[in-house]
Amino acid sequence: MAYIHASVPEPIHALLRKEYLYNRKAGHGEFVAIQIIGVSSYKNEVLTFDVLVEENGGLFHYIPPTAIAFREDAPEFPLSDLAYENCLGEDIAVFALEALKSMKLTLHPSKAERLEKMRGQYLLTVDWPEDNILHHVIRLENHCIAIYPSHKILFGEAGFDSELPQWKKLRYDWIVKRAPKPKKSSLRRRPPQYPQVSE
Fold first, then answer.
1. Nearest CA among 113, 101, 112 for reference residue 139
2. What DSSP character marks residue 44?
3. Is the dihedral of CA 76, 27, 137, 13 positive or negative?
4. I want to staple 108 with a disulfide (CB 3.0 to 4.6 A). Which of 60, 103, 164, 184 is the partner?
5. CA 187 to CA 173: how far, in whole Å?
6. What digits encode the pLDDT tens for the residues 130-156?
7. What count of other Cβ atoms lies within 10 Å of the Cβ of residue 148?
């Protein structure tokens, strides 16, 4: 069974560019306060968000990262800068790594058109277990939201002054293999047969 939708570990307070509430035909330059409460993973499309509008309780789905900001002066970037790649499948797990929640990070977006190396804050992780791919949702220092894999991020204060190492992804399966145990017989053991002695 595919799990296209998943709740986030805790609501994330942010702003939504208002035009995304009107099919991008009105509301340009305006913002509304929201809570990000879930994510959706549609194969071959960017990860999207489920958001709750705080002023009236409106619930909206399929909101892209380009629609979300943390301050009204947040710059706008192409979708390809804010999301490293499209979703690989629909089966996802969403969680937050406790050790990273209070840790600063540096994003190294080497494929981006306009987005440059930037500090940020970890929010949560999305795992596509069938493909062994994890992406992290990040609040960037420029007040945008971004979705990038581990190999584009350095965690800790030293990450901004460090070059991103040219690591390679592990492509092995770690499986314990043992000789199968002999199957137990399903037949009940018969009691021993003793010879009969006639008197």
1. 101
2. T
3. positive
4. 164
5. 38
6. 888 999 999 999 999 999 999 999 999
7. 24
